[in-house]
Amino acid sequence: MAQIRLSWVLRLYGLTDRFMFHKILTERINGYYMTRSTGGIKGLPTALRQRLKVLGNNIRLARKRRRLTMQDLADRMFVTRKTLKRLEDGDPGTSIGVMASALLVLGLEDDLTRVADPQNDTIGNALDRDHHERTRRTRKPAGKRVDLNF
Fold first, then answer.
1. For residues 77 and 14, what is the distance between their CA atoms, to the nearest angstrom?
2. 84 burial class (0-12, 13-18, 19+ CB within 10 angstroms)?
3. Using an 8 Å Cβ cutoff, are 89 and 60 in contact?
4. Number of neighbours of residue 20 by Cβ within 10 angstroms
5. DSSP string, 55-122
6. Backbone angles phi, psi at 24, to 5 degrees
7. pTM given for the model
């Protein structure tokens, strides 16, 4: 990729401010837009944040056991090294697609199917059983039948 001199781009867009150059460069040249932080991430319970950190540490450990550098794994996942770092740190803003990609590259994608497995959902199974018992049809006694043959 050819290097673009800062002065050329500044002249091209008629800018004098480096901040505006950065904004134009990120938005127009690369087509990359920064995402806004969501309020839901900050409201996560502490226990859930700790579990995300444990998950990130597990991914880091699996990467190190396979003797992969962060850059190698990030290249295989088609993400940046910074995104992989956020995943390994347990950042709640990292997408589930990035996590699924990491598990696929590490050969752990089968673990992803066990995340919300209906057979392991004890509360959901109990509620479903209770609902089934309440709405189960009962047959009427076979006593008096009406003959509809004419």
1. 38
2. buried
3. no
4. 13
5. HHHHHHHHHHHTT--HHHHHHHHTS-HHHHHHHHTT-TTS-HHHHHHHHHHHT-GGGGGGTT-GGG-H
6. -65, -45
7. 0.60
Look-up: residue for tokens 């509620």?
A: 127
Contact 70, 84 (CB under 8 A): yes
For 15-43, how does the pLDDT look when each residue is reduced to its tens digit (9 = 90+)? Answer: 555 555 555 555 544 444 444 455 556 67
Using alpha carbons, list the distances in angstroms from residue 46 to 52, 68, 81, 130, 135.
10, 30, 26, 32, 39
Beta carbons within 8 Å of 25's beta carbon, 6+ residues apart = 9
Q: 65 is written with which tokens?
A: 């056991």
The predicted-structure confidence for 56-115, as pLDDT tens digits, reads as follows: 999 999 999 999 999 999 999 999 999 999 999 999 999 999 999 999 999 998 888 888
Find, among 55, 54, 87, 53, the residue nearest to 70 by Cα. Answer: 87
Q: What is the pLDDT of residues 115-139, one digit of tens each?
A: 888 888 888 888 888 888 888 766 6
In whole angstroms, how large is the CA radius of gyration of the chain?
28
- Kindly state the tokens that stand for 86: 């956020």
